[in-house]
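User: My collaborator and I are trying to settle a disagreement about how two of our proteins should look. Neither of us wants to argue from intuition anymore, so we agreed to look at predicted structures for both before our next call. Could you fold the first one, then the second, and keep them clearly separated?

Assistant: That sounds like a sensible way to settle it. I'll keep them separate. The first protein:
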Amino acid sequence: MRQTFQPTCDLEALKARAKMYQRIRQFFAERDVMEVETPILSQAGVTDVHLASVPALRHVNGQQHTHYLQTSPEFPMKRLLASGSGAIFQICKVFRDDEHGRKHNSEFTMLEWYRPTFSLSDLMHETSALLNVCLAERFSELRPMVLSYKHAFQDRLDINPLQATLEQLKETARRVGLNLDLGDDRLAYMDLLFSHMVEPSLGFDTPVFLTDFPPEMASLAKVKTDEDGEQVAARFEVYIEGLELANAYDELVDADVLRQRFTTDNTERAAQGLTVMPIDEHLLAALPHMPECSGIALGIDRLLMVAQNKLKLEQVITFPADIA
């Protein structure tokens, strides 16, 4: 029986994590991608309505400020890119308030890297190579398939999420037994259908690179036109055994567009009674100097779940939030 002072993971999980870090660092060293370190506390927070930053009080030059623990190292890493760093990666702790469960802990470990001149296709190939290195003990060879968000919906729910009206999404939810009242939030119904009916089936035969998300989900990605002439976000996510492992963007470098997205986010946050977040003016100032690039954030704890064939995040981390 585990004592209250002991970690929730076993010794093998600790060894697997150490070995994975070594492999990741070797992987990027061979590709001349530099490891960097950036602050985890920032005066600006993420504006995304679906993410909650953890605030922290600290004194700077004798004055007390509310700063925020990072939900991702994205903003400072982009400032480095704009300053001429070249290709970079980082392994770090990130924080998202009140996210706990089988696949979540409010503090977790992220690998994030950026590749100037890389297309999303180039980044997919590199991500596939890294997955094969990190998961070599469990899988002989992984050959990911590419599937669009739209076709994943059509295959499983016979509906095109890019064109579906709010009423069509509501009716689809009722048809599959998801009888939740989400008001008139179209994206919320889309997320509900995706998380319950699409995501759990992804990546069992082979890893899935899910691409071309609805443009409303662009976040910090560019928007492009797909093969059917529909507007989509230039991003992909990686799934193995129904578990989302990574999120990648063809990075937006237009500061005016990004400022508008931040402002729109904060307007929606205010409407929902959420904290309006300070906008990162340093990032906006850096963006015009940033090279065209693709970037990706990968959850190391979840990758360890796959590598160790575990069902719960607590089986691969030492001390979850409830006993930290």
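The second protein, kept apart from the first:
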Amino acid sequence: MAKQNVKNEGDERLESIETTLSNTELFIEKNQKAIVIVLAVLIIAVLAVFGVKKYYLEPREKDAQAAIFHAEQYFENDNFASALNGDGNYLGFVNVIDEFGGTKTANLAKYYAGVCYLNTGDFNNAIKYLKEFKGKDVIVASLALGAMGDAYMELGNVAEAAKSYESAAMKAENGFTSPMYLLRAGMAYEMAGDYQKAIDVYKKIKAEYPNSNEGFSIEKYIAKAQAEL
């Protein structure tokens, strides 16, 4: 009896599979034209994406890398004006951004441009370009946030400066830049009158980066902020 039940169940499953296959075949037959069109569209889309990447984006990226070279040289030599706007013969970072938008190089140029504007005293433009920069490298992204904090400080917006410094410290946690940015964040929080937040970031330095340069002298900052609180 048990064997008969097993046989019956097996027959029912087989019939169900056969029915499903028949329905599928019927669906394909009825919609063959539409299916072919959809597959053709998908193939064309894949080929188009490949073609755009291979024959447009990659050459464009190479051109952008060549174009930014001299601006980077000016940047390394602290010639920020020429790095930003070029020298009449070679493009500056702003030109690279305008002419090669959408490339990785143009994105990096936004970071460079932000730092250049910071160093030339145009703090609003510094913030603008640093905000537009999308950094996948956490170190560079951290430096961009730190530079943004510097620009906010120069503009007297100490609350935003503190947030940017704290974000910079957390973006790429390490024993060098993190305690530096945390200390700046604490000092900015103090200037904004938020002594508890200042104490919190100072204590973070004490707990997590006690052997850093900032960690060696952090007790005096904590004591000062606690006195103000």
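Some points you might bring to the call about the second protein. Residues 2-228 form a domain with the Serine Threonine Protein Phosphatase 5, Tetratricopeptide repeat fold (CATH 1.25.40.10). The chain has one domain: 2-228.
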